[in-house]
User: What shape does this take?
Amino acid sequence: MDKKLHGLVYGMALLLLTACGDGKVEEQISDEIKSADKAVAEPIAKPVTKPSEAKVVAEVIETKIVDGILSSYVTKKVAAHTYVIHGPLEMPNKANGGFMNNPAFIITEKSVVIVDPGSSTIAGRELVKRVKEITDKPITHVVNTHVHGDHWLGNGGIKESFPDATFYAHPKMIEKAKAGEADHWINLMMQLTENKTVGTKAVIPDQALENLQEIKIDDLIIKVHLSEKAHSTTDAMFEVVEDKVLFTGDNITNKRIPRMTDGSFVGNIAVANYALELPVEVVVPGHGPTGGKEVLSAYGKYLSTVYETSKVLAEEGLETYEMKEQLLEKLTDYSDWTRLEDQLGKHIGQSVLEAEEAGF
Assistant: This one.
């Protein structure tokens, strides 16, 4: 084998994408506040079509950082300008220091954009160190996908090093964070990690996003996709136009079943279908491995199966506690997804209630 061919084969072997998923924090305060006007989610639960299975190839970036809560998780380059650190599937605890999401960064011509820096000031600081291993460009923009604190309480760690950075979020996220969600999440993380997130202070975004807004940062465009009520009432997805990358937040998860207490099955299904129509090739879920559009299809299919089956069984007269076994038979593709057994009963109950409310 000549040297060029050997190098190509070796390089491709290194670039196989595997990733840990994440966990989602326990029960939240669930205010039902009507969302921003320019929402994209249609209130229709149409079936999610399955696109051709795309395989995303990611380059693993070696890190020199050997301690800290991010140290066990590699940086992966998933597109020309986009890097992701995939967090664990487990719940926040003392050992992981609350780290459980997929913090990411995008390197533009002159600067760096952060997406969801994690659950604590410590996580944010460690993300800054990880960025500095790859580039000396300043962090100028931070975007947050929704109000659940495991995604955005790391803002403080960014603000410490880059005080002039601009922070963006859904207008309802800003509203709810100021109304008590920020303090709720700080306290919850302290409790679940046995005070490992001590010192975290909420840096609440002050730039309210608009649906389909385009944020031009040097040579790249970040396009914003807001929804009315999907995983929550505060969700924003971010499309890196030139990289064909979509950050979904918890509107889409992979290999892990999230809680839906703040959300809507109908709305979330609509968002999954909407995302399938976007001109993207790489999908970074809120938790779990990055992939192609098959990631959108898989989670959308789970939501549709639970909602539609629960609705039919309720119409046949079954009680919610009688439905779980039949649902599990339809969800064999998700048998290895973390927290399926834990969340399914709650999802059945919520689906039946939502279907009943839609019928009135």
User: Anything to note?
Assistant: Residues 171-192 form the longest helix (22 residues).
